[in-house]
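Shift notes (night). Ran ABC transporter permease while the centrifuge was going.
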Amino acid sequence: MSTSTIHDIGYRHYEGRRSGRAYVMRSLYVHNLRAAFGLGRPARAKVMPFLLAAIMLLPAAGSVAVVAVAKRPEALMRYSSYAVTLQVIIAIFLATQAPVLASREIRFHVVPLYFSRPVGHLDFVLAKLGALATALFALMAVPVTVLYIGGLVTKVPDSWHQFLHYLAGLAGCVLFALVLAAIGTVVAAFTPRRGLGVAAVIAVYMLTSTFTLIIQGIAEHQTNFTLAGWIGILAPFNLIDIVQVRLLGQAKSAVDVPSGTASGFVALALCAVIVAGSVAVLYRRFRKAGLS
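Came back to this:
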């Protein structure tokens, strides 16, 4: 029979500084934000996000170049319409990166490892949503900022007026980022395989946009402009455009928007419901995954 030996390895309790909840949340947020752009991952993971970011910049650079060469200030793209105009690129970025943040841990059953440490379920959800929203905001806000700086350099008239529109454009980017991140993360969290997650996010975007356009076309053909405006709340990009038009005083980019300031507050409230509801759904989803 073998004999057992007890070795004194000098184990001591940790007596150092404990960073606390804020440090944990910040670490999770930074980790997920880096993952959204493929940082810290193989080179192939960086191709898609940075390629899409470059494509997002091209129209802004081209618009500034036209203003500089042709001396036509009206050629500068509107800040509030930039995201709506390039919504396909934004949707592709969301579809490719949301599964990276929301589905990998569920697929490989590593969520319980996070919660074996003092990581709160709500902190985990907020860190992921915040990281994806930040990535989307950067994707949209950088080209809008290029437009604004280009306008200043090329001496577009009425700089103060342009500054106010720029701030309104940034506010729109914040709303776009929050709502799209909320929707994309929820869809990706329920499709553990990345390929299915990409397809699911694209499907949600295409179905809502196509359905909205069809109904708006039929309603306008029947001169029912009230329905044509209100049906826009079913598509995320149209929903935020309602807020931009009715509450931020911008020109519309969607096919139609409902009349009256009240419609802007309704659209803003719906944005808040989408974000809060997504947090609640993701909380339950990751909590269940953490117990499996």
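The chain has one domain: 21-291. Residues 21-291 form one domain.
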